[in-house]
Amino acid sequence: MDLSIVAPVYNEEENVPLLHQAITAAVAPLGLEWEVILVDDGSSDGSLEVLRRLAAEDPAHVRVIELRRNFGQTAAIAAGIDYSCGEVVVLIDADLQNDPADIPMMLEKINAGYDVVSGWRISRQDDLSRRLPSRLANGLISSVTGVHLHDYGCTLKAYRREVITGFKLYGEMHRFIPVYANSVGARIIEMPVRHHPRRFGKAKYGLERTVKVILDLFTVKFLSSYANKPIYLFGGAGIVLIALALLVMLYLFVRRVFFGVPVLGSPFFQMSTMIAILGFQSILMGLIAELLARTYHESQGKPTYTVRAVINLEPQERESVG
């Protein structure tokens, strides 16, 4: 299978048939082996019946996954990826705001050597109450992760399969897939895509989603930067705390020697003692996290590196030394 298109569906009864038509019109002329995986995320309208009808009408291309209840967009996307077979996986929303006609251009970028093609909704057709928080979140995510994209929230993205395997998606983390891909050395490019006003139904997500994204950002930053060497985070924080405690102790010592101010009567003494203890505990947490990281890699045989390609060498001929 050359191409898998994954679309999470939640109460999109009117949009799904039009989405199938648009995807077929965009992809069929390319001469590829392709599939579209429609994941029903516990819809309460007639979406599931429409999906079943499409699967019966186009069994060569349409696959349907029915989740037992509404698990959220990230879980639906994860299910679609897990069941997909394509060498390239394209994610797209089912609400017709993403345009399937942009998929061929994304595939051109993939064929040019990129591993991730991220859609950028330059002319986003949403109201200001959705655009402004999204712009702030995009800037924050880019600054924290070091992967600079204008539009993390755009679902329309294309990935080579090898850069989206090896990790699980939770919470609202589907928007952070480019960050995970970057951690394994993926070549990422951003491409302007079209964005249309919603024709049927209503948006399923509000401003409360922004809070979830910010919380997930902490997890993503830790996993992408410190998962293999957690001692750098916990140990670094511990050293800073201990150094701060020593500075406070030095200040108390100088004040006692030269000005005769009692040390034990100052609240700074209790504060410095607590800070030193926290620093020591942080270092111990880092050591425990190091043991967990090593257990994770060694027990599952997961190397600490990823290989893009080999020359004159079969991958299975070499044992991992990671």
Short description:
The chain is α/β, with parallel strands linked by helices. The protein contains nine helices and seven strands. It is elongated.
Description:
By secondary structure, this protein is of the alpha/beta class. The chain folds into two domains: 3-225, Spore Coat Polysaccharide Biosynthesis Protein SpsA, Chain A (Alpha-Beta Complex), CATH 3.90.550; 231-299. Helices cover 46% and strands 12% of the residues. The chain has nine helices and seven strands, in the order βαβαβαβαβαβαβααα. It has helices spanning 15-27, 47-57, 73-83, 103-111, 128-145, 177-183, 208-225, 231-259, 267-299, and strands at 3-9, 34-40, 62-66, 88-91, 116-121, 157-160, 188-193. Strands 3-2-1-4-6-5-7 form a seven-stranded mixed sheet, with helices on both faces. α8 packs antiparallel against α9. The longest helix is centred in the C-terminal third of the chain and has 33 residues, at 267-299. The two termini are 31 Å apart. The model is unreliable at 317-322 (pLDDT under 50).
Number of distinct helices: 9
Average pLDDT taken over every residue: 87
How many beta-strand runs?
A: 7
- Main beta sheet: 7 strands, mixed
Q: How much helix is in the residues?
A: 40-55%
Cα end-to-end separation: 31 Å
The CATH architecture assignment of the largest domain turns out to be Alpha-Beta Complex
User: What value does the Rg take, in angstroms?
Assistant: 25 Å
**Count of folded domains:** 2
- Spans with pLDDT under 50 lasting ≥5 residues? 317-322
Give the H and E element order.
EHEHEHEHEHEHEHHH
> What would you give as the CATH superfamily of the largest domain?
Spore Coat Polysaccharide Biosynthesis Protein SpsA, Chain A
Q: Looking across the biggest beta sheet, what order are the strands in?
A: 3-2-1-4-6-5-7
Estimate the global geometry from the Cα principal axes: elongated
| Helix-strand category | alpha/beta
**CATH fold-type name of the largest domain:** Spore Coat Polysaccharide Biosynthesis Protein SpsA, Chain A
Which percent range describes the beta-strand content?
5-15%
